[in-house]
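G., the chain you wanted modeled:
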Amino acid sequence: MKPIILASLLILTGCYDTVDKTENIHKINTFQSDSLALTIPQELYAETLFDVGITFDQPVSNIKGELTGISMDMGKVPLFFTSNNQDLTAYSTKVLLGACALPVMQWRLSLTWQENGKTQYFEQSITVQR
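Predicted structure as tokens:
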């Protein structure tokens, strides 16, 4: 029984994260297309809340987003955006992704929206560290 308890304690202390994840919170990556600019923190960590912002060139509606695991099977994480301004050109959401066994995880961020009566699509790969 004692070896099991000792092994459990060693495993738990081995999981202690010494990286200061708040250090790079203000460093931002911007990904652009013809109609939008997507902003996310430069360094993303699993199990740490982060912001995703989108700014469009003109008013849009019906924004839908999701994150899908590329390098691992973590399912799909829906994104729920809220408008930041009256003219419907800026939106944001907060995201929390789980961790898996991989030290670095690749995710696909997919967005769809309505612009001038037409459905538009944007996709960006992002890297998340455990």
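The longest strand covers residues 104-115.

Shout if anything looks off.
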